[in-house]
Amino acid sequence: MENNCFNMTKLCPDAHNTLGTVCIFGTGDFGRSLGLRLLQAGYSVVFGSRNPQNSSLLPKGAQVLSHVEAAQTSRVIFIAVHRENYEFLSAFSQELAGKVLVDISNNLMKNQYPESNAEYLAKLLPQANVVKAFNTVSAWALQSGSLDASRQVFVCGDNSESKQMVMDIARSLGLTALDQGSLLAAKELENYPLQLFPLWRLPIYIATGLTAAFFIYCVLTDIVYTFVTEGKNNSYRIVISIANRVCPIVSLIMLSLCYLPGVIAAILQLYNGTKYKRFPDWLDKWMLCRKQLGLVALAFAFLHVLYSLIIPIRYYVRQRQNIYIISQVKDNKTLTFDSTMSWRSDSFYSLGILGFSFYVLLGITSLPSVSNMVNWREFRFVQSKLGHITLLLCTAHTLVYGWNKFLYVSRYKWYLPPAYVLSLIVPCIVLVLKLILITPCVDRVITRIRQGWERKSVHVLHDTSGQPLFL
Ligand SMILES: Cc1cc2nc3c(=O)[nH]c(=O)nc-3n(C[C@H](O)[C@H](O)[C@H](O)COP(=O)(O)OP(=O)(O)OC[C@H]3O[C@@H](n4cnc5c(N)ncnc54)[C@H](O)[C@@H]3O)c2cc1C
Ligand SMILES: NC(=O)c1ccc[n+]([C@@H]2O[C@H](COP(=O)([O-])OP(=O)(O)OC[C@H]3O[C@@H](n4cnc5c(N)ncnc54)[C@H](OP(=O)(O)O)[C@@H]3O)[C@@H](O)[C@H]2O)c1
Ligand code: HEM
């Protein structure tokens, strides 16, 4: 029964008044899950199988026919078969001429084949219209309906009418269809599900490296040192005190690493006298993962705030306070109010709270639902301007916390500086460089360069007698 609405963009409603008939080749995991969703959405589903009799697992209401018979029922055919088995399709290329073949296939490795699976299918069946789609949606997610992680269906193909039909089907399944252009984009779409958090990798490596390094450093200077020099076992400090030292330090350094590439970029642009010269690869990669760097840093700041909030209820802290008060009573001493100390601790907390609020604001604006609501200038304002203010506040919080501790020799255990001093190095470098870059004379040049102005080098040519010719 030949479908007679081949020229229309939409599938024709059939006799059962469904949205139309969709054909699926292959009754495996993906074919069955897609079939179920299509039936639920109101389509008639016809499977094409090598073995139409063996159909016990198929969703109720679907028909199973041979490939040739099934191909005749619908304009759109989903090829839910692995690429390695595509050869069988060329046996009935006549029946597939003019059909929209949806290639949903993925590979086991990136760039496994010289051409994409979709381009291979198009080469195999040149009279069909191949559309690449649905390969980023998993069979399990389709079946369970929990499509939170994979609601987007990337679609590409050379025939826009065919692409539109596939996008309409995706939308009627409650998915978000995104046009990715021609079939040339298929390779990228096929590589996409094989990626494992590519932009998160570097930030996670940095966070792990810094956490490990500072944890060892703090254990050495706070616990091992006390044990070796005083014979006291302070190991209980690992759980909260050391954790609450490592988390803010990692957070502060990572926050400054979000803003260091922007500063390096500006210095390179100043040096090159143009914005048209490409940045080195490492800088490009660094710039691309700043959002992830920032979000990991924010997670560490959250931990620091939570750890700090429970300080007053810690047994160790209460015990120390009690011992101190009792010794005061015993010695009949009265505590004098130190107003400098009061200023210092209030300023330190206030700077931390302000810094953390701005930090959270940066995190909120990076949510796609929020960033889609602001224009590019507003986004840059929050991320760049407020971002630098956040870095300034958090650095000031740490500086006021440290105050003059770095002046005391007793703080240099085994000649090692206190950890907070190390945490301030990168943030201070970033802030000082940024301060230089925003001074009017430097800023003017950078702004001009970023607007397209180029510093021309003077070409010195020589005439035949060796005299310089200035152009
Ligand atoms: C919690 C948190 C969330 C964050 N979320 C995001 C986020 O969602 N998205 C995000 O991008 N960052 C995010 N960041 C990182 C950071 O806030 C931004 O990247 C911020 O814009 C960096 O500001 P900047 O002034 O250093 O650099 P930029 O705003 O990039 O400005 C530097 C200048 O360099 C130039 N430039 C930048 N890139 C290039 C390039 N590739 N080639 C040529 N010139 C270039 C531009 O002219 C620009 O004016 C987040 C950070 C944190 C802490
Ligand atoms: N599973 C997923 O989550 C998922 C997600 C995205 C994309 N995909 C892609 O979807 C395609 C199918 O995956 P799947 O998980 O459904 O695989 P599967 O469970 O192995 O099913 C493949 C189906 O292909 C048919 N088939 C097998 N060998 C064949 C051959 N030699 N000739 C013709 N047909 C053959 C079989 O159906 P019949 O016995 O009925 O002929 C089989 O059930 C793959 O390209 C995969 O990359 C899968
Ligand atoms: C609500 C906000 C915050 C509060 C209440 C707070 C509180 C504290 C406290 C109590 C300490 C001392 C910890 C100790 O004695 O071991 C501290 C130290 C520190 N804080 Fe914060 N803080 C806040 C936000 C931040 C933020 C956003 C950062 C930046 C990432 C930050 C960075 C630091 C650093 C680097 C130290 C020094 C760690 C050390 O060497 O011990 N703080 N903060």
UniProtKB/TrEMBL annotation:
Listed transmembrane segments: 204-228, 248-272, 293-317, 348-374, 424-446
SUPFAM superfamilies: NAD(P)-binding Rossmann-fold domains
Cofactor(s) this protein cannot do without: heme b; FAD
Record key words, sorted: Copper, Endosome, FAD, Flavoprotein, Ion transport, Iron, Iron transport, Membrane, Metal-binding, Oxidoreductase, Transmembrane, Transmembrane helix, Transport
Biological process, per Gene Ontology: copper ion import; iron ion transport
Chief location of this protein within or outside the cell: membrane
Catalytic activity: 2 Fe(2+) + NADP(+) + H(+) = 2 Fe(3+) + NADPH; 2 Cu(+) + NADP(+) + H(+) = 2 Cu(2+) + NADPH
A cellular component annotation (GO) from this entry: endosome membrane
Pfam family, one: Ferric_reduct
Matching InterPro entries: Fe3_Rdtase_TM_dom, NAD(P)-bd_dom_sf, P5C_Rdtase_cat_N, STEAP_metalloreductase
Highest taxon of the lineage: Eukaryota
Annotated compartments: Endosome membrane
Residue ranges constituting the Pyrroline-5-carboxylate reductase catalytic N-terminal domain according to the UniProt record: 21-107
Family per similarity comment: Belongs to the STEAP family.
Name by which UniProt lists this protein: Metalloreductase STEAP4
Naturally occurring in which organism (per UniProt): Acipenser oxyrinchus oxyrinchus
